[in-house]
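Tutorial, part two.
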Amino acid sequence: MSFLDELYYGNINPNENRNRRPLPYEKAVKTFSDIENKLTKELNGENLKLFNELINASDEISATSGVENFKIGFRLGVLMMCDSLLFDNSIILKDIKL
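Running the prediction step on this input gives:
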């Protein structure tokens, strides 16, 4: 099956292909999780509600920026491919007899 076929049938999922994260990322996630757990235990009422809204908003920002960054990277890749296909035959192929 071609790449386009695989993409069409949903067999290509770059967001699921996650290898081991770099150590700084893992440390930051652990720190975030530890602090979130501590604050969740300490806060109550309106403060806990505000904290949860803050976490949810942060998650939304992260998800949205991830999608946008993926799109930007994909578009840049397509532009690089297009640029590599546009060339002057007389310069590139001058030493090749066709």
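The mean pLDDT is 84. In part three we will examine how such features are distributed along the chain.
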